[in-house]
UniProtKB/TrEMBL annotation:
The keyword Methyltransferase does not apply. This is cysteine-S-conjugate beta-lyase. It comes from Lacticaseibacillus thailandensis DSM 22698 = JCM 13996. PANTHER family: PROTEIN MALY. GO terms for molecular function: cysteine-S-conjugate beta-lyase activity; pyridoxal phosphate binding; transaminase activity.
Length: 390
């Protein structure tokens, strides 16, 4: 019913992803090549027919759409009273860092992790405190002993969790989240859970929203959710902050308003409501496509590029490739692949931790385009290995 075999041609359209040289193929930024759900486009078109676009604010229908989406998709309805609209996950995250921690404080992240977290922390004059994920048997796990020691430090006032985790594609279990939330409560650390990839679990157990944990455990938690990754509508600039505790929510609300990141643009409300009320079937189809694409990429790499190991994953559309047998300088490898083949992937180096031995590849594109990318990856790795031997 939905078409995932064609990509709208976005060259020359102000797309960040497709601002490339002729012949280049971008598979780096977390932006899918699929057109969004037609139901969302129809709602936006309907809005445009109004012709007058003054100031807006979200009402009960917006917040109920968010709540119903989480009830239906993830089996847990957050209370609409816990929600605040914001213009994006990152704008909210940066505002929360500024409002809820102090200059010089430590903000904990689990590396390798989404690189822009570092900007949100450091641009506000806070320190990044690194709880490096342990890489054991080609899988990532939390070092809880170190985490507890770090959360207990007096200057650690905030932890940013990536749930599910970008770039390693891991879905944290309820037990792991319970342990993290319990430690944060014990040491009075605000726990910010970035759940932007939460709808993109395409196989196995679903992700657990942080607000699904027992009420006493979520009094110091802030969840950030958005349709932007799910429906490929990043330029909609719409997200929702979910804060169960009244006092904490009042402070977060002040932070968002002070930083002026709490007012919707003309398409944010109708686009989000359409996504969350009419997007279920499209998302189900997308998940099937992502599962098929992951299998296509994993099988190709296993057969044709044995020097590269695909890290197992059940979520996101970002493949985490262990290139440690090729190099420990992923930045040099990514630059060489681009130069030789035109394929653009993210060097894991930017995510810190052990990322210098990994590449991140975005596989949310039509299968034919993915095949092209995989063949370029094969050529690029082969060429890199040959030049290293010369
Ligand atoms: C974990 C994570 N958080 C946030 C964002 C960006 O969120 P937004 O566009 O709503 O600011 C991304 C985009 O890739 C992401 O991967």
């Amino acid at each position: 019913m939905y078409d995932f075999t064609h990509a709208p041609d976005r060259r020359g359209t102000d797309s960040v992803k497709w601002d490339v040289q002729p012949g280049e193929l971008p598979m780096w930024i977390a932006d899918m090549d699929f057109a969004t759900a037609p139901e969302i486009v129809a709602a936006m078109q309907q809005k445009l027919t109004l012709g007058a676009f003054g100031y807006e604010e979200p009402h009960a229908d917006y917040f109920h759409a968010v709540a119903d989406w989480y009830a239906t998709e993830h089996g847990v309805p957050p209370d609409p009273a816990w929600m605040i609209f914001t213009t994006g996950v990152l704008p909210a995250l940066s505002a929360i860092v500024r409002r809820m921690s102090h200059v010089g404080d430590s903000v904990l992240v689990q590396t390798p992790v989404y690189n822009i977290f570092y900007n949100s922390i450091e641009n506000s004059g806070r320190h990044v405190l690194t709880n490096e994920l342990r890489y054991v048997h080609q899988q990532y796990e939390v070092d809880f002993d170190q985490l507890e020691r770090q959360l207990a430090l007096p200057l650690t006032t905030m932890m940013i969790l990536c749930n599910p985790h970008n770039p390693v594609g891991k879905v944290w279990t309820r037990a792991e989240l319970t342990r993290v939330a319990t430690l944060c409560r014990q040491y009075h650390v605000v726990l910010v859970s970035d759940e932007i990839h939460g709808d993109l679990v395409w196989r196995g157990p679903d992700y657990t929203p942080i607000f699904a944990l027992p009420i006493p455990l979520i009094q110091q938690t802030i969840a950030l959710v958005s349709p932007s990754k799910t429906f490929n509508v990043a330029a909609l600039h719409a997200a929702t902050v979910i804060v169960p505790n009244d006092h904490l929510r009042a402070q977060v609300s002040r932070g968002l308003n002070t930083d002026e990141v709490a007012e919707p643009n003309l398409l944010a409300i109708p686009g989000t409501i359409a996504a969350y009320t009419q997007g279920h079937a499209w998302l189900a189809a997308l998940r099937q496509q992502l599962a098929a694409n992951f299998a296509q990429a994993r099988d190709f790499i296993t057969h044709h590029i044995p020097a590269v190991h695909v890290v197992a994953s059940t979520a996101t559309y970002l493949m985490w490739l262990n290139v440690g047998a090729v190099t420990d300088d992923a930045a040099a490898l990514a630059a060489s692949i681009r130069q030789e083949t035109g394929l653009i992937v993210s060097p894991g180096t930017i995510y810190h931790g052990n990322g210098n031995r990994f590449l991140r590849l975005n596989y949310a594109c039509p299968p034919a385009m993915l095949q092209d990318g995989l063949q370029r990856l094969d050529r690029g790795i082969t060429h890199y290995l040959q030049t290293r031997q010369d």
